[in-house]
Q: What sequence folds into this?
């Protein structure tokens, strides 16, 4: 019984810490354009998706241990699919437990970071039409204001949604940058242990470029928004 408790307690501690981290505020989606919050891309880089994965991994790992499995193997197996969002050290430990061969481990990293890049692209694709529409709305409002022909109530409602869209996407970008930072930390840790990470670093740089491209689009709308004032 004592041996089981000793093996279960670490898994419980990990599960609780993941759940608490996943419960941090993710902000409100009120007023956000439905095109941004519907579909699979809405789940990418969101707290709710991360929490769901974390809880599933924690519960799965606990169940595996209770059935007599090796603690490290159980946690690593349960975390499959959560990726680096589980935390740099945790993710690194699970991959090292799963792949003793550094080349196989690097290939696993590259596959996971490519999935992150696809997720960034999915968010970018979902955002493009919304951001283009927001820019067109801002152009119209600016012209109406200059001609003193603006409908104050309608203008405020449209600006509120644009503000919400910007905040929503900036939150996504912040989470993307956090993921990028985690990948850079992981790469540095592997280099310190003597692993050649050039291929991984190339993928990280590609991820950075994709995030920067999305941020540039959001910043453009944000700049135009700041120039439109409705009293």
A:
């Amino acid at each position: 019984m004592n041996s089981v408790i000793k093996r279960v307690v670490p898994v419980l501690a990990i599960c609780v810490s993941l759940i608490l981290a996943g419960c941090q505020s993710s902000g409100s989606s009120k007023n956000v354009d439905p095109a941004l919050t519907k579909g699979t891309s809405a789940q990418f880089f969101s707290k709710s998706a991360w929490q769901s994965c974390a809880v599933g991994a924690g519960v799965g790992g606990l169940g595996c241990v209770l059935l007599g499995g090796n603690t490290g193997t159980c946690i690593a197996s349960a975390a499959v699919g959560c990726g680096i969002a589980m935390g740099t050290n945790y993710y690194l430990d699970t991959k090292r437990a799963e792949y003793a061969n550094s080349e196989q481990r690097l290939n696993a990293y590259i596959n996971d970071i490519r999935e992150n890049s696809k997720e960034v692209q999915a968010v970018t694709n979902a955002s493009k039409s919304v951001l283009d529409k927001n820019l067109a709305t801002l152009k119209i409002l600016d012209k109406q204001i200059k001609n003193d022909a603006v409908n104050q109530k309608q203008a405020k409602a449209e600006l509120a949604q644009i503000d919400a869209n910007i905040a929503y996407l900036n939150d996504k970008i912040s989470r993307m940058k956090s993921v990028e930072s985690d990948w850079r930390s992981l790469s540095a840790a592997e280099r310190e242990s003597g692993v050649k990470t050039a291929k991984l670093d190339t993928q990280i740089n590609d991820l950075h470029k994709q995030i920067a491209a999305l941020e540039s689009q959001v910043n453009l709308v944000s700049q135009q928004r700041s120039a439109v004032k409705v009293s």
Summary: Confidence is low (pLDDT under 50) at residues 4-27, 59-63. The two ends are 70 Å apart (CA to CA). The helical segments are 2-22, 34-37, 47-66, 71-78, 88-98, 102-146, 152-192, 198-226. The chain has eight helices and no strands.
